[in-house]
Backbone:
């Protein structure tokens, strides 16, 4: 029996049509987090991480962190979905070492926000008595 739109639609036909409509409207995103290059104290503004999520409609990608930095996002539209990539940039300092940087993805197809956490690792250099330089790699 073919599906027909109408006020008299009931039962399994109505549920099937509703499920088909919902499936075509919301495609839950599949987020991924990619750490940037190695961070070293004294670098200028550097990419700490990027986060990408693709879904329909376009997901919302934000960052949750106490680290001071800047966020930028771009969206790529496809025929049936959209990919959003957000980048988090910072000026590395030793106080950031071991701090969490969390990508947060929200979307109507998700019951709750998806969160992916990256722990920052910042290499730093310091001077000891006598002026000899020593490199210290700080690990969390």
Residues:
């Amino acid at each position: 029996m073919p599906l027909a739109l109408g006020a008299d639609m009931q039962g399994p036909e109505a549920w099937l049509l509703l499920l088909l409509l919902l499936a075509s409207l919301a495609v839950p995103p599949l987020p991924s987090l990619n750490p940037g290059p190695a961070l070293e104290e004294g670098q200028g503004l550097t990419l700490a991480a990027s986060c990408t999520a693709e879904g329909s409609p376009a997901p919302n990608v934000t960052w949750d962190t106490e680290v001071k930095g800047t966020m930028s996002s771009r969206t790529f539209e496809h025929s049936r979905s959209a990919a959003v990539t957000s980048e988090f940039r910072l000026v590395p300092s030793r106080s950031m070492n071991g701090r969490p940087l969390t990508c947060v993805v929200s979307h109507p197809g998700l019951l709750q926000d998806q969160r992916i956490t990256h722990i920052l690792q910042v290499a730093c250099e310091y001077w000891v008595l006598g002026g000899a330089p020593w490199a210290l790699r700080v690990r969390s």
